[in-house]
Description:
The structure is a single chain. The protein is mainly α. Helix content is 75%, strand content 0%. α1 (3-17) runs parallel beside α5 (88-108) and α6 packs parallel to α8 (153-165). It is elongated and about 75 Å long.
Amino acid sequence: MDIQSDSALEKAYKLIESCSVGEAAELLKDLLPADLDNNKLVSTIQCCSYWQKRLNSIAGNEAYFEQGEELVNSWKDFLSSMGRSENEKALYSFRKGIFSLALDKYGKADDEKDDSMRAEICRKKGLCYKKLGSYEAALKCLTEANAAMEGQSPIIAEMADCWALCGEERNAKLLFREAFFIDAQKIDLSFLDSQMINLLIKEVESKGFSGAALQEWIPVYGVIMGIFKYKRQLRSNEVLRLKQGIYALESELKNPSNDASVLTPRLLNRYFWLIDYYDNAKESFDKITEVLLKIQILDAGIYKNYREACL
């Protein structure tokens, strides 16, 4: 790499970290004619151009929360459209700049004492802190979000991800299992960073699942692969809701117009939870056998894997 380009890139990275992407782009463009084969230079200029348009668009919105949302959603689009750059230093600088700015926007947003809005603001602040590597601050925000709106799968999944990134495996696995049980569809997989969950996601994707079905199969394979191995005792009202949910899903699956690709793994996961409940409660093994038979009828392959891995 040309020494002058190398020095300019280092200066540009610092500018990007403060979201001064226009200034960074101008600095690098001056060097481009003399160093056209420099991939890092070219890709960083392209990324600056992307974010310059986004930041100009955001500047026209006076609502802080919406500004934060646009920044966070643009990050997803950025990774998708621009690709995961081989220039890790540039990617780090953009991530630091964008999520620092988003954190500032969310911090200025007014929750108007609305619990759901307050929870969402705290969750997004937690997400920003996580992306910035401040896991303790992230967990503090996510705990506050959970206190405002308890039992929300996006919040619990982010908490699990933070625990995993902190090396707290048990907490992470327990909370991931909880989150995917509550509502797998509401979890944004693209913002989960821990190796634990991403290896599981890739494993399920390798089996040909995508979209909504992928979300539902993750907890099924999480159990079979021993990742979601930690369990908790269900309260009596939770057991009632679980059984009602199973009955409803069984009824839905009988209707051919419903999407079996989503309903089947969702029901399998609930069968797993019911077996865990019977086991923890020391119920008759006949009840477990009854559920196992239902699993076998629903998916013989999963039944075989579950018997081998979990029983």
